[in-house]
Write a structure and sequence with these properties.
Blueprint lengths: L2 H13 L11 H10 L6 E2 L4 H4 L4 E4 L5 E4 L6 E4 L2 E4 H8 L3 H11 L12 H10 L3 H8 L7 H9 L18 H11 L4 H25 L3
Parallel strand pairs: 1-2
Antiparallel strand pairs: 2-5, 3-4
Length: about 220
């Protein structure tokens, strides 16, 4: 994505009344920290690294449904929305979050190449068997070129910005601004934009009404 595309995406979100927070580095890191602070419920991303960053809830395949061809294979799998809960995953695997990070390093993250000849099952066995990553390096007889301590620290202490809760308040869409941005500036169909915008506003009002009613119970 180009810088102009990012700026325009942010502009569209703002005129739609949707809050925008700029991450200093990784977007997944910023979102995950906000989840761990209780400012958000979960992160929507395809990236499993969100769990390593400490996101308690990760939602995948939200905008990707239907069938997808498996890489290198001649068959398709059905893709459905997926909700991953960090606490449940740690309990199921029998590891701490730090050891989950070790596992991620062994099979490869966005910040390092995977260890050769190490798959998920072997990686899980190694992190459960040893209590330091140095022991794992010794056991695999592979000396990585990257500094694993930096990667562990990157996940355990993600770079993020402090966010004022008021910055997360959704606002009403600015109808005329949305139409100006999409129809006049980018030649979208006015009828289609108005139809989608009306449906968005209606759904937003329904959700707000449900929240107001829930306060009585």
């Amino acid at each position: 994505m180009t810088p102009d595309m990012i700026v325009e995406a942010q502009e569209l979100l703002r005129v739609m009344g949707i809050p925008v927070i700029e991450a200093p580095e990784e977007g997944e890191a910023q979102g995950s920290v906000m989840v761990s602070r209780g400012q958000l419920f979960g992160v929507v991303s395809q990236d499993f690294d969100c769990l390593l960053f400490g996101a308690t809830h990760l939602f995948r395949n939200i905008g990707i449904t239907g069938k997808r061809k498996v890489a290198g294979k001649n068959f398709y799998i059905e893709v459905k929305p997926q909700h991953l809960e960090l606490e449940s995953i740690l309990k199921q695997l029998g590891v701490s979050r730090e050891k989950l990070i070790w596992l991620g390093i062994l099979v490869g993250t966005d910040f390092n190449e995977k260890f050769p000849r190490i798959g998920p099952k072997t990686a899980l066995k190694l992190v459960k068997e040893y209590n330091s990553f140095e022991e794992i390096i010794s056991a695999t007889k592979f000396e990585p070129e990257f500094d694993y301590k930096e990667i562990v620290n990157l996940f355990m202490n993600p770079v993020s910005v402090e966010v004022n809760p008021k910055e997360l308040d959704a606002k009403d869409p600015m109808r005329e601004k949305v139409l100006e941005f999409l129809v006049e500036k980018h030649d979208f169909s006015k009828e289609r934009v108005e139809s989608t915008l009306n449906a968005f506003i209606k759904k937003k009002e329904e959700i707000e009404k449900q929240r107001s009613l829930s306060q009585w119970f």
